[in-house]
Design goal:
It is built from 3 helices and 7 strands. A 5-stranded antiparallel sheet has the order 4-3-2-1-7, with no helix packed on it. A two-stranded antiparallel sheet has the order 5-6. The radius of gyration is 12 Å and the shape is globular. The model has no long low-confidence stretch (mean pLDDT about 90).
């Protein structure tokens, strides 16, 4: 899979999320979606994972873990599929 969307910084990624963009990415051979519902960002595994909601994208990146690592520490490993 090719990473068509290469982001330069965590701030750039957070800005895209804060603007309300849906982001689908793969990491460690698992696909995830970051989106919004009821004015709150959420993350879920694709295609049928349960959504985990946060008050802000920043909290999501500080708290949500994949393989024991928070998103803010592994975002550079995301293979972004759709944005």
């Amino acid at each position: 899979m090719h990473n068509l969307y290469k982001l330069k910084s965590l701030d750039e990624l957070m800005g895209q999320i804060e603007m309300g963009m849906d982001i689908e990415f793969q990491i460690y051979d698992v696909r995830y979606n970051i989106s919004w519902r009821d004015d709150k960002p959420f993350i879920c595994k694709c295609p049928d994972g349960d959504a985990v909601f946060y008050d802000t994208p920043k909290l999501m990146f500080e708290q949500y873990q994949i393989n024991g690592k928070v998103l803010q520490d592994i975002w550079q490993d995301f293979e972004i599929i759709f944005m």
